[in-house]
Every structure is written in C-alpha cells, then in structure tokens.
From TrEMBL:
Protein's UniProt keywords contain Transcription regulation: no
Compartments where located: Cell membrane
Protein task: Catalyzes the dephosphorylation of undecaprenyl diphosphate (UPP). Confers resistance to bacitracin.
Protein name: Undecaprenyl-diphosphatase
Homology family: Belongs to the UppP family.
Membrane-protein topology: Multi-pass membrane protein
Note: Bacitracin is thought to be involved in the inhibition of peptidoglycan synthesis by sequestering undecaprenyl diphosphate, thereby reducing the pool of lipid carrier available.
Primary site of residence: membrane
Keywords annotated in UniProt: Antibiotic resistance, Cell membrane, Cell shape, Cell wall biogenesis/degradation, Hydrolase, Membrane, Peptidoglycan synthesis, Transmembrane, Transmembrane helix
Membrane-spanning intervals of the chain: 47-66, 86-104, 110-128, 186-204, 216-240, 252-268
C-alpha cells in the first residue's frame, strides 16, 4: 500500500477509535497484522498522531479548560476540585506505567492479546450496561477524591492492548456511580495528561524519534496528524451525544465481533 495512503488511513483510524471504548492502540496493532506494514518504521508516526486526537479534545472543550485554568489561578473551589480530580486519576497510570513499561511494550507486539482483550472488554461493557442504572449527571468537579483515584486505577487496565483507555475509565466511572455524560467527559479530560505523558516518556527514552532519523517523513506525519485531529473532533462531540441517550452496548458488540474475527484469522491462517 502507498505510504501516504497508509498514513492517512492510520490517522483516520486513530481519530475514530481514540475516544471510543474500542481501543485505538489495539486497532493500530491489528492494522499492522492485517495490512502487513512494518510497525518499527511507523513508531514515530503512531506517537505523534495521538497528539492530533488530544488537540481535538482541547479544541472541543477549550472553554472548559480556559474557565478551569483561570479559575484555578483565582483560587475558585470548582476549578480546584476539577484539577484535583484529573490529577488524582492521572497518578496511578503515571506510576504504574513507568514501573511496567517493558511489559507493556512486549504486549504491544501481540495481536492475539488485543483480540482477547477486545472480547473480554466487550462482555464487561454488556454486563455493566445491564446491571448499572442510569445516574444523575454531576460534573467532574463534583466527584469525590476517592472516585477520581479509583477511576485512575481502573484506567491502568488499558495498559493491556485492546482494553481501551476510554473504555476502562468510562466503565470504571459508571461502576462508581458516575453519570454517562460525566463519565465520558472525564475520560476525555483525563486523556490529555495521560496521552501527553506517555508520548513524552517515549520521546525521552528514544530521542531519535524526533531527531529526524525516522524513516517515515514529516509530510506523512503531518497528514496523519491532521486526519486524526479532524476525525476525533467529530467523534468526541458525537460520542457524548450518543451515549447520553443510548448507552455503550453497540460498542461492546463491535469489540466482540472484531476480536472474534481476529482470533479466527490468526489461528486459521
């Protein structure tokens, strides 16, 4: 496949899946297996296009970030609680991620791990959808510190490729009594420090990723970044509107389908 076409398609895939409970990392790993491109050549690219998806969250919720940022400087309680909850939820992934980074990297090479995690996660979502009642929306700042840090620990499950960072945080929040819209938005806000932190760690460990030695050119990276940003911009808005009314079951069935097809493909061929 032409590398420019690959760059655009992977950017679209990242934008589509990053904030849905279906695992963007898992989909990128499966794309490597399905289409046969060399993941080592695209490591720089895969890290940077995630930043395009992050930018989509910042743009979509710019007013919220601005209000909370300026409110924090003024010492407003609502802003302080908002920032506290995001930071508390971020801490478990920051600490545990650094401790088991080598284990995570090893799992990133296994499409089978992704497929199984997709299926297990899909079943978990269906169970939670059936057992958890609809909750009243509270707002991120209204969550207790215990709920915030609990969601942070649940997010660590997403270190298993195919689990889905957004899926883990949203389902964890729902299980702790958070409303659907608040759970989805908390997942988006938490993605900013989590994904930025993961990208910075990778770049610090491997400075050659930004030193011009990567084989994928900056034109390809720019195309993927823009594609990821634009698609995520649409997905973030649509996702909140959809799950607020209809829930997460369609995403669960999609996970089970993709995971099952992948396992059949891996073992049959």
């Amino acid at each position: 496949m032409d590398t420019i076409v690959t760059a655009i398609l992977l950017g679209i895939l990242e934008g589509l899946t990053e904030f849905l409970p279906v695992s963007s990392t898992g989909h990128l790993i499966l794309a490597q297996a399905w289409f046969g491109y060399d993941p080592a050549l695209w490591r720089q690219y895969n890290i940077i296009i995630q930043l395009g998806a992050i930018l989509a969250v910042v743009v979509t919720y710019f007013k919220t970030f601005w209000t909370m940022g300026t409110g924090l400087l003024r010492g407003e309680r609502k802003a302080i609680l908002f920032v506290r909850n995001i930071l508390l939820a971020f801490l478990p992934a920051a600490v545990i991620g650094l401790l088991i980074l080598d284990v995570i990297d090893a799992m990133l090479e296994s499409p089978a791990v992704v497929a199984i995690a997709l299926i297990v996660g899909g079943i978990a979502i269906l169970v939670l959808e059936k057992t958890i009642p609809t909750r009243e929306e509270q707002g991120v700042e209204a969550l207790s510190w215990k709920t915030a840090i609990g969601i942070g620990f649940v997010q660590c499950l997403a270190m298993i490729p195919g689990t889905s960072r957004s899926g883990a945080t949203i389902m964890g929040a729902l299980a702790m009594g958070v409303g659907r819209k608040t759970a989805a938005e908390f997942s988006f806000f938490l993605a900013v420090p989590t994904m930025l932190g993961a990208s910075v760690v990778k770049i610090v460990q491997e400075p050659e990723l930004l030193a011009g030695t990567a084989t994928i050119g900056w034109t390809h990276i720019a195309l993927g970044f823009v594609a990821s940003f634009l698609v995520a911009l649409v997905v973030v808005r649509a996702f909140v509107a959809y799950v607020s009314k209809r829930g997460f079951a369609p995403f669960a069935w999609y996970r089970i389908l993709i995971g099952s097809v992948t396992l059949i493909w891996l073992f049959a061929f």
